[in-house]
Amino acid sequence: MPLWRRALLAISGLMGAAGIGLAAAGAHMGGENLTSAATFLLIHAAAVAGLSASGSAMRGPGISASLLALGAILFSGDLAARVFWGERLFPMAAPAGGIIMIAGWLSLTVFALVSRRRAPPSQM
User: Fold this and answer.
1) What are residue 91's phi and psi, to 5 degrees?
2) pTM score
3) What is the dihedral of CA 31, 33, 38, 40, to 10 degrees?
């Protein structure tokens, strides 16, 4: 498995662990921001892990996984920073993270459609 895919798997593990931690903090401290951050991290950690471990020789799943990870980290990090530090990571961090996550999901769609069209008939 290429180095970047292994790195994405490690990142997805950290995202999952952070998601569990934020879910626990949200349950004890209260707060919609922590619950939302935890949910986004957990869902996208699973997606990043699946895409990274897919074994596909295509770069597309790795690009999609990278976008999903970056977007989820920015979005969730900004929400958590608001709770723990009382301020944002940087202006527009959460919206930028959301846009990047959307781009990740859309890129996955495009790569799936393009790869199917280009696949030899025996692999369809």
Assistant:
1) -55, 135
2) 0.88
3) 150
